[in-house]
Amino acid sequence: MILSVSRRTDIPALYSDWFLERIRAGYVYVPNPMNAHQISKVPLSPDVVDCIVFWSKNPAPLLPRLTELEKYHYYFQFTLNAYGQDLERNLPSIEARIDTFLMLSEMVGPDRVIWRYDPIIIIEKYPAEFHEEAFLRIAEKVGPYTRGCVISFVDFYGKLDRAFKENGIAEAEENAMYRLASGFSRICAKYEISLETCAEKIDLSQFGIGHSHCIDRNRIEKILGKSIESGKDKNQREECGCIASVDVGMYNTCTNGCAYCYANYNWDLTKRNHASHDTTSPMLIGTPTAEDRVVERNVKSQVIGVEQTTLFEM
Description:
By secondary structure, the chain is α/β, with parallel strands linked by helices. It contains 8 helices and 11 strands. It has helices spanning 11-14, 16-25, 94-108, 128-142, 161-167, 174-190, 217-224, 267-275, and strands spanning 2-5, 27-32, 35-43, 51-56, 74-79, 113-120, 148-153, 194-197, 210-211, 246-247, 293-296. Helix 4 (128-142) links the parallel strand 6 and strand 7. The two termini are 13 Å apart. 39% of the residues are buried. The model is unreliable at 308-314 (pLDDT under 50).
């Protein structure tokens, strides 16, 4: 099993104590995003968790406790943008987050820290020139500390209509995408960083940019030193190249406050959820009630040659 921690919220930044408590307990409760009363009990034993993929914009709170994960394999998708507090209201400064990136890379190695520059939002305050300068400035700092960079352009979601209008956010025009792709490609070549896109339809291969697999079979096999068997994640968009994983997060729980985030579309609910979080609960938010149905989720190691129980989809 590949564990995603998490596309739905920034667990390393906001809930690292809870996650490590679940690691110690050996299981986690994950509500179905489509039916909150249907809860899966997911085992977290190193015998079945082949690799953990962390997603974060500020994993600093987790760094002092990484030794508690010594029995696990993992890598980080680390987002470094340079927006102001109008779009990312509760993040530390970009300088502080770059320092965290460098520290993390020194701890786990540059192959296990992927730099994400996404989503790219091209508006009056953040024109193409801003992104060219910001990308270069960050690359100069993190270049020796990573082997890969993933970019994506902002996508519109109906539930974010109000947030997009309030911040003047719109999807990027094709010419702007090509301009930035060309510039970013030259910068990454200088620092020997592989550059890929995440879930983008646009073909940027003319700039040497391929399509990313954020939860990547090849990367995981390199980390494990073993082959795994897993198919494409059917729960993601068609353009997504990720292999299947189990995500332990919940929507409307991330207080980073990013105006463009598809996973947090109700700020009042997000604040209430965060305030009600209990580090000792088996679920990220709340506890099971009499109305809930908890079902054991049978999982297995996907390392070829390891035989255990069958994986069932939630």
